């Protein structure tokens, strides 16, 4: 399970690397434009979810903190949750990258924001929305 846990992030690294280190390379936009880039992490999610599907369905249908704590002690459940978070962060980062390219927001500014999206997307996403608004106002 540890290998799948680690792999769920590692399969996203090439896409993050393209967005952060090669944002203006013509192939980056082509590759990142596909929403299918999240598929490798979702495949890992599916592999680890199948054996614990009942537990996850119960968590979704009747969520509680105690149930989450208990379920998270199971390596497959925690790995599934991690893979889902990783896939979501990549999907969100993909949107941020594509939006920033359309708005011509400088890659030097976007690199740290994309790294922040990997680490703390709930904080960095609103920051990007502010950057986006400032960029919009400066072009009006």
Automatic annotation (TrEMBL):
Does the record's keyword annotation contain Transmembrane?
yes
Listed transmembrane segments: 7-25, 37-61, 68-88, 108-131
What's in the keyword line of the UniProt record?
Answer: Membrane, Transmembrane, Transmembrane helix
Coiled coil, from the record:
none
Origin: domain of life: Bacteria
Protein's name according to its UniProt entry: ABA4-like family protein
- Name its species: Nocardia lasii
